[in-house]
Automatic annotation (TrEMBL), chain A:
This is AP-1 complex subunit gamma. Pfam families: Adaptin_N, Alpha_adaptinC2. One of its GO terms (biological process) is intracellular protein transport. Transmembrane segments: none annotated. InterPro entries: Adaptor_Complx_Large_Subunit, AP1_complex_gsu, ARM-like, ARM-type_fold, Clathrin/coatomer_adapt-like_N, Clathrin_a/b/g-adaptin_app_Ig, Clathrin_app_Ig-like_sf, GAE_dom. SUPFAM superfamilies: ARM repeat, Clathrin adaptor appendage domain. It is found in: Cytoplasmic vesicle membrane; Endomembrane system; Golgi apparatus. Belongs to the adaptor complexes large subunit family. It is a peripheral membrane protein. GO terms for cellular component: AP-1 adaptor complex. Keywords: Cytoplasmic vesicle, Golgi apparatus, Membrane, Protein transport, Transport. It comes from Oncorhynchus tshawytscha. Residues 636-751 form the GAE domain.
UniProtKB/TrEMBL annotation, chain B:
Its main location: membrane. It is found in: Cytoplasmic vesicle membrane; Golgi apparatus; Membrane, Clathrin-coated pit. The gene is AP1S2. GO terms for molecular function: clathrin adaptor activity. Subunit of clathrin-associated adaptor protein complex 1 that plays a role in protein sorting in the late-Golgi/trans-Golgi network (TGN) and/or endosomes. The AP complexes mediate both the recruitment of clathrin to membranes and the recognition of sorting signals within the cytosolic tails of transmembrane cargo molecules. InterPro entries: AP1_sigma, AP_complex_ssu, AP_mu_sigma_su, Clathrin_sm-chain_CS, Longin-like_dom_sf. It comes from Oncorhynchus tshawytscha. It comes from the Eukaryota. This is AP complex subunit sigma. Gene3D superfamilies: 3.30.450.60. It is a peripheral membrane protein. GO terms for biological process: intracellular protein transport. Adaptor protein complex 1 (AP-1) is a heterotetramer composed of two large adaptins (gamma-type subunit AP1G1 and beta-type subunit AP1B1), a medium adaptin (mu-type subunit AP1M1 or AP1M2) and a small adaptin (sigma-type subunit AP1S1 or AP1S2 or AP1S3). Binds to MUC1.
Length: 756, 149
């Protein structure tokens, strides 16, 4: 069997493939060769084969059959094998697979190997991908190595310990003794990793935090040395000594100084020193300044220092480097609540960032701008934000529009300004405005009583220009319907339209392809409302009746109901559609439901009053109002004589005349239940026409037992002085098999003897 | 750091180092999606972005993108320095490194990374020390057999 081809040879070959298919063929061929080589347990070329497998894996091809081979390599006594074996383990295995546990013993041995580079491999692998079980098994070895004087191993052990703690937090305690003199090390690698370890421990445990607070002076000293010391070629980055270590120390100081006055004070000077002395021409200096600012803002620093920090961020905002501008905006966003005034000073720079080309910067600038809006700067800020809204990407428009509405609501200097601002948003970003803005805006307009004429006129004009933006159209329709009289009455500043023109516009919305069903609903309702404000009632009636046969079910339903209002209840329609009525929350469902009830109502029922009876309206508010009517109609069919029977519940009415008063009929109901489950919380309610009076006595119980094992009886006394035909509307509620049940019924075929 | 990816302008992965436990399938999906997102960005945009719930820091060196996903509390600017340090190490090791070096010697690129970072954090801040360790380890490969402990 010829020797397997070398890794670089394979890479070269695969790269000559001109198509994906060709590459796949080569890969498959090589995989087959590698597989048979593995089967032969070839020790010499295992390393080469696994390396090739890793390359193919990186191209996206499956390599799981090499997992066990990695373990064999790790166990080998050749360094090359171990190197590739551990690499393979880190690439091909993850802690979800059982196979990786088999590594534990090898790693344990290698942690104790005589060659530090082998120990290093083991520490690296454990620290990168060790599972909780592995960490538990090997924590002791890591702890040992954390105490070694070999700095090469000590630094790796520290980071390995970090990983162990992340995986098994309970083990944190055991590393405590080893941390004793970590910071006395001269070696920067050990110092850096030690600071990372201490940071991890302090973040996880308040006790550790307390314990390590005493390290603050030492950390301050180390940081000071880094800053003050001269040029150190080994650690220098653009004139700064070991920026990585500086940043980590600053971060640890942040955690130690947080909510502790003494520690914060102890680090005050060094923070000021770093903030003022760090070179800002390169990214590395700014990285340190950034970390310093974060620390100053998070600990209990004195106000002078905080202002210094915010000014650094302000300078960042002017930096040519967009990355610096980005972190500045992010940080300012975090501090705007606590240091509002300091951030306000940089408002104009922040607003300029709205024009930045970078999307992330623009977004942050927008968020920050909204946070900075207040009563003093509202006019200026709003100008900028509206300009931004005009020109920004679609992904921002919805958030920006919402922000503008919120800010306007809080700080509007005048009602007129407020309405104008809303108009501007609706006309420039109307299609991006959130759905819930429409009702909120309508509410707002309703409350600005003196602005009604102005508003409706402006909205009408906007409609003439553009009917494509649905939220704008909806608000406009609503306003025209509500304040149409103001629109045509000459109260507006400009030439007022005549009624027919207004109706033309609204009808135009109904037929336009651009209008959504919701918008059409608004228009139809508006047209309807104008019937009480305009004189062209006939035209309106015609439109409404046309839509009685509309394909759109919602529109059809509305039109039919409105038609009925015209026909039967002219006097009611004024009540329902008038301005002062409480039906006037834009909530069309409520309006609609009430109208449908009116439609169903016969003149025998007093909806607006009630004796000792709960009016039906207050209870159910069905989402499909039509069905309430439907239920009632269905029930009338089921009723026979004086019996109600539905869903296993049967109610019989029996009658007797009370003595001495012949005008009082005494009706007793008997409720029984044929289903196999009890009906609990059973409540019977009744309503009678105005000329009657009704008294419901207490029921015998609230439970109608299953399978006719008993009944609930209740007495109703009806006073009928005018000797009119008795009619009764009945409401039943009960719980059956855990679900609430409700039903309405009309009883109108009482025997004449009961009321004559 | 949660992971580091190196990929070409055509979206081919040259190195992937994962510091969080994820299945092969999950890794593939994340790589694919993130690579597309970054390749779609214009040159004038900043090096940081929020992607899913991660902070991403990336920088392009010649034909290679270096991309890291970092934790919320991590300093983005220093992460750029970490990336830069890694590039310097590769440069010193290979002598004026180019993408081809990393393609043909990917395992060495990993070895260098593993001497610089461990568990997602820098283990050595001295360039010299990292390179010295790699040099010694390379020499060890020449030795026939390691003596048993």
């Amino acid at each position: 069997m010829p020797a397997p081809i070398r890794l670089r040879e394979l890479i070269r070959t695969i790269r000559t493939a001109r198509t994906q298919a060709e590459e796949r063929e080569m890969i498959q061929k090589e995989c087959a060769a590698i597989r048979s080589s593995f089967r032969e347990e070839d020790n010499t070329y295992r390393c080469r084969n696994v390396a090739k497998l890793l390359y193919m894996h990186m191209l996206g091809y499956p390599a799981h059959f090499g997992q066990l081979e990695c373990l064999k390599l790790i166990a080998s006594q050749k360094f090359t094998d171990k190197r590739i074996g551990y690499l393979g383990a880190m690439l091909l295995l993850d802690e979800r697979q059982d196979v990786h546990l088999l590594m534990t013993n090898c790693i344990k041995n290698d942690l104790n190997h005589s060659t530090q580079y082998v120990q290093g491999l083991a520490l690296c692998t454990l620290g990168c991908m060790g599972s909780s079980e592995m960490c538990r098994d090997l924590a002791g070895e890591v702890e040992k190595l954390l105490k070694t004087s070999n700095s090469y191993l000590r630094k790796k052990a520290a980071l390995c310990a970090v990983h162990v703690i992340r995986k098994v937090p309970e083990l944190m305690e055991m590393f405590l003794p080893a941390t004793k003199n970590l910071l006395s090390e001269k070696n920067h690698g050990v110092l850096h990793t030690s600071v990372v370890l201490l940071t991890e421990m302090c973040e996880r445990s308040p006790d550790m935090l307390l314990h390590f607070r005493k390290l603050v002076p030492q950390l301050v000293r180390i940081l000071k040395n880094l800053i003050m010391s001269g040029y150190s070629p080994e650690h220098d980055v653009s004139g700064i000594s070991d920026p990585f270590l500086q940043v980590r120390i600053l971060r640890l100081l942040r955690i130690l100084g947080r909510s502790d006055d003494d520690s914060s004070e102890a680090m005050n000077d060094i923070l000021a020193q770093v903030a003022t002395n760090t070179e800002t021409s390169k990214n590395v200096g700014n990285a340190i300044l950034y970390e310093t600012v974060l620390t100053i803002m998070d600990i209990k620093s004195e106000s002078g220092l905080r202002v210094l920090a915010i000014n650094i961020l302000g300078r960042f905002l002017l930096n040519n480097d967009k990355n610096i501008r980005y972190v500045a905006l992010t940080s300012l966003l975090k501090t705007v609540q606590t240091d509002h005034n300091a951030v306000q000073r940089h408002r104009s720079t922040i607003v300029d960032c709205l024009k930045d080309l970078d999307v992330s910067i623009k977004r942050r600038a927008m968020e920050l701008s909204f946070a900075l809006v207040n009563g003093n700067n509202i006019r200026g800020m709003m100008k900028e934000l509206l300009y931004f809204l005009d020109s920004c990407d679609p992904e921002f428009k919805a958030d920006c529009a919402s922000g503008v509405f919120l800010a306007a609501e809080k700080y509007a200097p005048s009602k007129r300004w407020h309405i104008d601002t809303i108009m501007r948003v609706l006309t420039t970003a109307g299609s991006y405005v959130r759905d819930d803005s429409v009702p909120n805006l309508i509410q707002l307009i309703t409350n600005s009583v003196e602005m009604h004429a102005y508003t409706v006129q402006r909205l009408y004009k906007a409609l003439l220009d553009d009917i494509s933006q649905q939220p704008l159209v909806q608000v406009s329709s609503w306003c025209i319907g509500e304040y149409g009289d103001l629109l045509v009455s000459g109260q507006c500043e400009e030439e007022e339209p005549i009624q027919d023109e207004v109706l033309d516009v609204l009808e135009g919305l109904l037929v336009s392809n651009l209008s959504t069903p919701v918008t059409r609903g608004y228009s139809l309702t508006a047209i309807m409302k104008l019937s009480t404000r305009f004189s062209s009632v006939n035209r309106i009636k015609k439109v409404v009746s046309i839509y009685g046969s509309s394909i759109d079910v919602e529109l059809q339903q509305r039109a039919v109901e409105y038609n009925a209002l015209f026909k039967k209840y002219d006097h009611m329609s004024t009540v329902v559609l008038s301005k002062s009525s409480l039906f006037y929350r834009f909530n069309l469902h409520v309006l609609y439901y009430l109208v449908s009830l009116l439609f169903q109502a016969n003149d025998l029922l007093d909806l607006l009053g009630g004796n000792d009876v709960v009016p039906v309206i207050q209870t159910t508010l069905p989402t499909k109002p039509a069905s309430a009517g439907g239920e009632l109609l269905d029930l009338l069919g089921d009723l026979s004589l004086s019996t109600y029977s539905k869903n296993g519940l049967k109610i019989e009415f029996t009658f007797e005349r009370a003595n001495p008063n012949p005008n009082i009929a005494v009706i007793t109901i008997h409720a029984t239940n044929t289903t196999e489950a009890d009906m609990t919380e059973f409540v019977f309610q009744a309503a009678v026409p105005k000329t009657f009076q009704l008294q419901l006595l207490s029921p015998s119980s609230n439970i109608v037992p299953a399978l006719n094992q008993g009944s609930v009886t209740q007495v109703i006394r009806v006073l009928n002085p005018q000797k009119q035909q008795l009619r009764m509307r009945v409401k039943l509620t009960y719980t059956h098999k855990g679900s609430p049940v409700q039903d309405l019924a009309e009883v109108n075929n009482f025997p004449p003897q009961s009321w004559q | 750091m949660q992971f580091m990816l190196l990929f070409s302008r055509q979206g081919k992965l040259r190195l992937q180092k994962w510091y969080v436990p994820l299945s092969d399938k999950e890794r593939k999906k994340i790589s694919r999606d993130l690579v597309q997102t970054i390749l779609a960005r214009k040159p004038k945009m900043c090096s940081f972005l929020e992607w899913r719930d991660l902070k991403i820091v990336y920088k392009r060196y010649a034909s290679l993108y270096f991309c890291c996903a970092v934790e919320d509390q991590d300093n983005e600017l220093i992460t750029l320095e970490i990336i830069h340090r890694y590039v310097e190490l590769l440069d010193k090791y290979f002598g004026s490194v180019c993408e081809l070096d990393i393609i043909f010697n990917f395992e060495k690129a990993y070895f260098i990374l593993d001497e610089f970072l461990l568990g997602g954090e820098a283990q050595e801040t001295s360039k010299k020390n990292v390179l010295k360790a790699i040099e010694q380890a390379d020499l060890l490969q020449e030795v026939r057999l390691l003596t048993d402990p």
